[in-house]
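name: query_chain
kind: protein
chains: 1
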Amino acid sequence: MTTLGPAQRNVSMMFQSYALFPHMDVLENVGYGLRMSGVAKDVTRQRAQEALRNVGLVDFDTRLPSELSGGQQQRVALARALVLEPAVLLFDEPLSNPDARLRREMREEIRTLQQRLQLTVAYVTHDQSEALAVSDQIIVMDQGKHRPGGTPQQLYETPASAFVAGFMGEAMLFPATSEPDGSVRLGPLRITPRQPVPAGAVQVAVRPEAWHLVPAGQGVAARLAKRAYLGSNYEYTFDTALGAIFVVSPELGRVLDIGSEVGLELAGHGVSVVQAR
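structure:
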């Protein structure tokens, strides 16, 4: 990387801003790297058109970037990065601009292309769901330092630290106590950790979807303070003796009124025990 000129490096990058050349049409933008690498004109055109087909932009050859939507510009930038068939492909938050539906479609497309072309990809994102969807391995950075990483499932289900637990999936952290019998006490609840935890002070990371609503008098006593309807679920914020608890509930047929009193219990998933800070 450091001893070769840009045209000789077998690496491509897709920038967050797309960085398309405004005076070049789509085909010229996609073929730019090939031309700079000395590839013949007819081969450059053929490979650029093939790259555009791979991202669903057939018959867009002569359009300028200003004539494209944001999603189409993003696909051009992706095609330009892929056409070089690099050994390593770098993505700098490539899906930070499109709307939610286009982000989902594009991340699925990136994942499909990566697997089909067997590319090594380094993908930077602040979107946790995006990281979980496109990755084989995730590295979590905290103020420039590498925190314990792993597969998406490992980071979500069994995070190695309180920071990773809080960063991946909006987990809330609660102070708890690890008992000599191996269980963990969180208020009135008892939790069986997946791995042995030394007796003493610990923290329990709980995902919003791990809470179950039960009748008042069971589990953790809770009073509803806030409610939001998101179409596929409700988001609730409860006041409890453990502090404010954020809950995502798929029970659309059950709507709680502000001030309602219920109990909260934990499911067998989305709960992990980490060492106290």
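note: The mean pLDDT is 88.
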